[in-house]
Amino acid sequence: MDALDKAGRTGQILDEQPVYQGPIFDLVKQTIKTPDGLTVDRDLIKHGDAVTILAITDDDQVVVNTEYRVGLNAETISLPAGLINAGEAPLVAATRELQEETGYIAHDSQVMTAITSSEGFTSETVNLILTHIDPTEHGERHFDADEFVNNQLVPLRQVIDLLRAGKIRSAQAVCALTWYLNFLREA
């Protein structure tokens, strides 16, 4: 069996102890028997799945957000994003999150791919969504009580320049943009 054939094999969770329970994630300690027969102790952040939305107009304007992020203690440049509610499909979550954060209405949405940012310690999967917007269709924004998001339409060329300059650092935004540019954008 070559290494690629092993992908997808699961381990057996022998024990799980809660360490912390919070509003967005839980931290647990697990003892696991791996598919290769090792017994290991690991910390796992159990995190709900999320969406990141590449929203683009017919004339190649991209919805770009700036929002305070505690991990960097600074406002960062990214794409609209948010958590998927229990029982909600990724495309439904993307439509809802885009409306809540930006006021824009999603059209012709599709899942580009799903990514894991750090499967060594978190269970979070982020669905990368491509959607189209009409900048003249704009409703009200509805922020969560603890968030405020600034957004604007930015030409795709300028977004690519921000990406190249390292000013867009969110792994989800980098992946969404590069997936779109490499696999979906018409030449």
Automatic annotation (TrEMBL):
Record flagged with keyword Hydrolase: yes
A single GO molecular function term of this UniProt record: hydrolase activity
Highest rank taxon of the organism: Bacteria
Keywords for this protein: Hydrolase
Cofactor: Mg(2+)
UniProt-listed PROSITE patterns: NUDIX (PS51462), NUDIX_BOX (PS00893)
Coiled-coil residue windows: none
EC code(s) of this entry: 3.6.-.-
Protein name: NUDIX hydrolase
UniProt-listed Pfam families: NUDIX
Chain ranges of the Nudix hydrolase domain: 46-176
Signal peptide segment: none
